[in-house]
Design the sequence.
């Protein structure tokens, strides 16, 4: 198998050169000095608190010892041990702790409260307002009124003013939508499509018990669902829901968990056929990403990627698989891909492989490993555990 | 080596990482300030199971993510909305234009979606391996490779007018 490769692009890739030339603003010495001064003051605070703790610990233990000594005198009677009666109370440090020396920097470089503290204060103010003042409801009411009067209005535009406090508005809608009439619920669902989060899914699910309303609620739920929920629907929904959930997973181009979950669904016997058909029927199947999984994934990811690549029925893919097979002594996941390919070159290779002991063994190993993967796919996937 | 020495040794790298992630020096300073605070509070939890640099980078990344949430950053959307065809889009000929172009490329990198940005910056500019990057970000190596690929392809599309095959 190829070793971990931080640069999968060919050596003369012009992108590499351009990216390496990227030039960010350089921090001046001032930032560094301020940060060093901040660290110094944090270190000093840690030192002082440790020193203070040690002082108190020392004082407490001395007081305890003194107390025990006095107690011993009281208990033992008028002839206490001489040592105890002669003990002098310890001299605790007088006054406050000595003032630490100012760091030896020029005055302009001494750390002064900067943006961090200002931001912290602003956040505290915002938090206070959030707790003690209601959100402004006007933008939400405006959006709703418009959608109620003109259902064909552009919900995306209407909901733009709601983005700043979308979590609060969403909570308001979800706490009330069950009591609204159907028209208002439809407007609510349109707003949730724009500002909603996965929090809305249980409520949408309960409203979807009405099949008529489900037509409107389901697309919103699909839009909002995270990968974990989509994975569940891909296994347990109706036929239509399973298909749409898988299509949504595959469409998450910027989230590698989408394809990762699809590959897991390929491993599971019950969802394999549908998952493979969704990937192979996609207008732009993620071929390059599949090759990345083929080379760098876990065992399950490598094998499922191999299988899907084989099923894509693309001569260029077959050529690439054959090249890897020959260069890397027939990795089982690549052999699995070739076994699943209907390409003539793949068939020819496999026919010849029967006479090659290494290749034959690799094919048998591929089949065995695939059986094992199909079995272990029935256990929870890491993405589903958290 | 003492904690103070370790922090001093890696402070510049932490600051540079924050600049590359946020795209600005003032934001980077804010991020590293908070990171130092967290280091000061939680240094006892560092058991030396990873390099200090990796541990520090993990803290910087976490602070960066919190900073993004606070800002409700639309940096990634900026990347989509800002047209590439501006006056810097001419092929850089002079040294000044080259510098502007290099800054432009840096802006594109800092405008990637957060996860892609983190992976690309750590692997390409901080020279972490895939396994170190996976450790810093708390994801699998396969995820690192996949995300790196997505990030590169995105930048390839955005920078297509400037790519010349050699």
Sequence:
């Amino acid at each position: 198998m190829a070793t971990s490769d931080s640069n999968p692009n060919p050596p003369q890739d012009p992108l590499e050169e351009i990216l390496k030339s990227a030039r960010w603003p350089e921090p001046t010495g001032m930032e560094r000095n301020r940060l060093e001064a901040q660290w110094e003051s944090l270190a000093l605070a840690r030192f002082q608190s440790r020193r203070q703790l040690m002082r108190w610990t020392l004082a407490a233990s001395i007081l305890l010892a003194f107390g025990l000594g006095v107690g011993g005198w009281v208990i033992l009677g008028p002839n206490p041990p001489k040592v105890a009666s002669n003990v002098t109370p310890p001299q605790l440090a007088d006054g406050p702790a000595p003032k630490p020396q100012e760091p030896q920097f020029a005055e302009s470089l001494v750390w002064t409260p900067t943006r961090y503290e200002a931001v912290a204060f602003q956040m505290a103010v915002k938090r206070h307002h959030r707790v003690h003042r209601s959100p402004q409801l006007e933008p939400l009411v405006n959006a709703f009124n418009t959608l109620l009067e003109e259902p064909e209005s552009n919900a995306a535009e209407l909901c733009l003013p709601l983005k700043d406090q979308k979590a609060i508005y969403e909570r308001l809608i979800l706490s009330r939508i069950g009591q609204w009439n159907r028209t208002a619920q439809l407007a609510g669902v349109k707003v949730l499509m724009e500002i909603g989060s996965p929090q809305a899914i249980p409520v949408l699910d309960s409203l979807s018990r009405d099949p008529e309303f489900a037509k409107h609620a389901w697309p919103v739920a699909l839009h909002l669902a995270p990968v974990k929920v989509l994975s569940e629907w891909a296994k347990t929904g109706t036929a239509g829901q399973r298909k749409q959930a898988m299509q949504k997973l595959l469409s998450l181009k910027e989230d590698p968990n989408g394809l990762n979950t699809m590959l897991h669904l390929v491993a599971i016997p019950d969802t394999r056929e549908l998952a493979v058909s969704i990937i192979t029927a996609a207008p732009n199947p993620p071929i390059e990403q599949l090759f990345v999984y083929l080379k760098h994934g876990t065992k399950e990811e490598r094998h499922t990627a191999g299988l899907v690549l084989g099923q894509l029925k693309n001569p260029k893919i077959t050529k690439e698989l054959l090249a890897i097979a020959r260069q890397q002594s027939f990795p089982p996941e690549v052999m699995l891909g070739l076994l699943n390919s209907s390409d003539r070159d793949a068939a020819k290779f496999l026919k010849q492989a029967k006479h090659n002991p290494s290749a034959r063994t690799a094919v048998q190993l591929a089949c065995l490993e695939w059986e094992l993967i199909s079995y272990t796919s029935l256990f929870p996937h890491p993405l589903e555990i958290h | 080596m003492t904690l103070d020495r370790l922090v001093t040794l890696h402070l510049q790298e932490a600051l540079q990482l924050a600049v590359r992630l946020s795209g600005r020096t003032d934001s980077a300073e804010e991020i590293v300030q908070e990171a130092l605070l967290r280091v000061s509070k939680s240094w006892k939890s560092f058991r030396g199971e990873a390099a200090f640099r990796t541990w520090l980078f993990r803290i910087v990344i976490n602070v960066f993510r919190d900073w993004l949430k606070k800002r409700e950053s639309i940096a990634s959307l900026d990347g989509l909305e800002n047209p590439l065809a501006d006056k810097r889009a001419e092929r850089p000929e002079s040294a000044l234009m080259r510098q502007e172009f290099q800054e432009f490329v840096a802006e594109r990198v800092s405008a990637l979606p957060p996860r892609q940005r983190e992976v690309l910056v750590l692997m390409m500019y901080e020279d972490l391996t895939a396994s170190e990057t996976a450790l810093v970000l708390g994801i699998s190596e396969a995820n690192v490779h996949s995300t790196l690929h997505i990030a590169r392809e995105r930048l390839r599309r955005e920078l297509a007018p400037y790519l010349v095959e050699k």
